[in-house]
Amino acid sequence: MHQILRQILPKVTHVPSRRMGATGVTPAKLASYWEKVFREHGVPEPEDSSRILVAHALGAKTFHSIGSRAVRSPVSADVTTLIEKMAQERLKRVPVQYIIGEWDFLDMTLEMRPPVLIPRPETEELVGLVLADCLELHQSPDSSLLEVGCGSGAVSLAILWKIPQVRVIAIDKSDAAVRLTRDNAERLGLQHRLHVLQHDILTDPIERLQDLGPVSAVVSNPPYIFTEDMRQLEPEILRYEDHAALHGGPDGMDVMMGILQLAPLLLKASGDIFLEGDPRHPEMVKRWLEDHPEERLQLLQVVKDFCGKPRFIHLRMCR
Ligand SMILES: C[S@@+](CC[C@H](N)C(=O)[O-])C[C@H]1O[C@@H](n2cnc3c(N)ncnc32)[C@H](O)[C@@H]1O
To answer: I need a labelling partner for 219 at 20 to 30 A (CA). Which of 10, 95, 167, 272 fits?
Structure first.
């Protein structure tokens, strides 16, 4: 048992029961104990972290769903040990999503494996934008979409989940991302409408993608962090997530520009492009489009995220 836990248990528990290895420690006490330890060690979101780990050890989705009675009933020594093991990982700043091995994105539960990027809440808004503003995907029986940089598969799978007839091509340069997207597709039973391909859009031949036929839309949450901002990232991100999923070059635009050049060669006439980026990117993309009229792309709208930051860029191919 963890040293600190040994010290604190007599203070916070009654005499441990010997029945079935029970320790006398309840989920409520474990959650508040680990919250305190996390707080003392500067772990971000200490309450959420401890509650998620305790809930996971008990096979519950959330701390709340453990139930008011169970949360005050003693847990077995095995559960206490498992929570301690996971908490030690959290103290090393491993993200909870990697520790518990799964995370929810919209109404799907996806497997998470380091170093594949953990989907962020704002990316759920990117999916919302595609679903709301890409009529072709809803109306055409043979519509298809290309996602550049699929990571865990979150975006592609959410679109497949919501639009029953659509087909998706999901590409990523990372082998780990490609494998995780395939596994998540199988987990959700969506693999039959998904084509997953390991492909680097900056170096691999575009013909590989053109052979799959023109698509109605291209969507991407590319790596878009500016070089100078990389070192300010939290240890959770810097130590455990793939830097190639985050770093977008000096101006965060390396992969985004690759997409803007590639998309017109892959889209149907009037096809859509949906991008997530840094709040500085909409203006930069606007200037890039003015300098590259030959790409025949029109900026339709810039959409703010839930924090009010200009985050999403919707473009359309001109006829
Ligand atoms: C910010 S992550 C997005 C992952 C996922 N779509 C999401 O939103 O959670 C960017 C992804 O792009 C991939 N990527 C980076 N450069 C790429 C390139 N040149 N070609 C294809 N994929 C690339 C990374 O491997 C990573 O999985």
So the answer is: 95
Please tell me the distance from the alpha carbon of residue 287 to that of residue 107, in angstroms, as a whole number: 37
Of the candidates 12, 35, 34, 32, the residue with the CA atom closest to the CA atom of residue 23: 12
Q: How confident is the model at residue 23 (pLDDT cuts 50, 70, 90)?
A: low
- Comparing C-alpha atoms, which of 287, 223, 297, 311 is closest to residue 266? 297
8, amino acid identity: I
Ligand 1 neighbour 173 (Cβ under 6 A) = yes
Chain segment 53-100, per-residue pLDDT in tens: 999 999 999 999 999 999 999 999 999 999 999 999 999 999 999 999
Domain made up of 114-317: CATH architecture: 3-Layer(aba) Sandwich (3.40)
**Distance from residue 200's CA to the centre of ligand 1 (Å):** 9
Check: CB of residue 50 under 8 Å from CB of residue 95.
Answer: no
**222 C-alpha to ligand 1 centroid (Å):** 5
Tokens 């043979």 identify what position? 142
The pair phi, psi for residue 250, each rounded to 5°, is -55, -40
pLDDT over 80 at 12, yes or no: no
Confidence of residue 20 (pLDDT cuts 50, 70, 90): very low
What pLDDT was estimated at residue 141? 79
Query: Domain residue spans in the chain?
Result: 3-92, 114-317
Q: Using alpha carbons, select from 300, 301, 293, 284 the residue that is nearest to residue 264.
A: 293
